[in-house]
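Human: Cast an eye over this sequence-structure pair and say how the chain folds.
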Amino acid sequence: MRIRRYTLAGALAFLSVVFVAGPALAGEKGPVLSRPGNHQKPLKIDFGVYLMDIDEINGQEQNFKINAVVLLRWKDSRLAHPGPGKRIVALDSIWHPEILLTNRQARLRMPLPRIAMIEPDGTVTFRQQYVGPLSQRLRLRDFPLDTQEFSIHFALTGIDPRDVELTPGAFPGGLVGGGMAKVLSLPDWGIVSYRAEVKPYRLSALLQAPGFAFEFTARRHSIYFIWQAAMPLILIVMMSWVPFWVDPRRAEMQFAIASSTVLTLIAFRFTLAAMLPPLPYLTRLDMLTIGGTILVFMAFLQVVITSLLAQGERLALARRIDKLCRIIFPLIFIGLIILARWI
């Protein structure tokens, strides 16, 4: 529902964008707001995206927070000037494409002023910084051993796709199409790869806008979840085996250990549930948790059975069952761990 709402908001923004005339250029009679170049050919626009930081990837909210700079460059010979150097003008005083982040989840901060730099030959460069959350559907079946694809999708609104030709451009500082800072504020993720490519924004088969995307692949560092989730679960399940070493005649102690294990596991499952949104499928951690829950319940039933046998003067049989369970339960749990890890 949330993703659909943001898609609808993007559609409304796409349909409602207009260009408003700004202050006139120095030396011009009025603002230049019509598309430059030969209208028989598409206007070439170079783009570049530099991802300065990723503040957070939130599996519960299905979003990630970015700090990125976008650069656009095109040529408008009507804006050529004798120089020397670059001329800085208000962006709204010249023709320019409006940028829409199609998967934004809330209003983004844009700290840089809306200005354009014009070379003497009429080459226009515009840059803007975007800070805020973007929505991203995460496929969490392999959680916490998952690798995710993320996309920052930009659309140029108010322009017919046939009128422009987007190309990953080369910009000062070595940026070619897309780039990323080497150090990010992500302690629990590692960046595998990234790329910038032309990617039109399609709302339907008949409604689309020219666009481009910066996409990256990230792999979750699983060590945190191994220590904070998997290891406590393993210890809780192993605690349920302690009654196998207690004399079946001491039913009170066996039941105390078994019941405390069940309560501990229930509280632990509430903690795990806060890590992810409700999902229609099982993750790897879910498989381990559900399997562990079943084993804990089976251990509790074993305590009941051996206690009844001991009270019914079948103590030898109860002790044989205990000895068998000391082997069977660990083997089943090891198989469950292997299944959750590699299947």
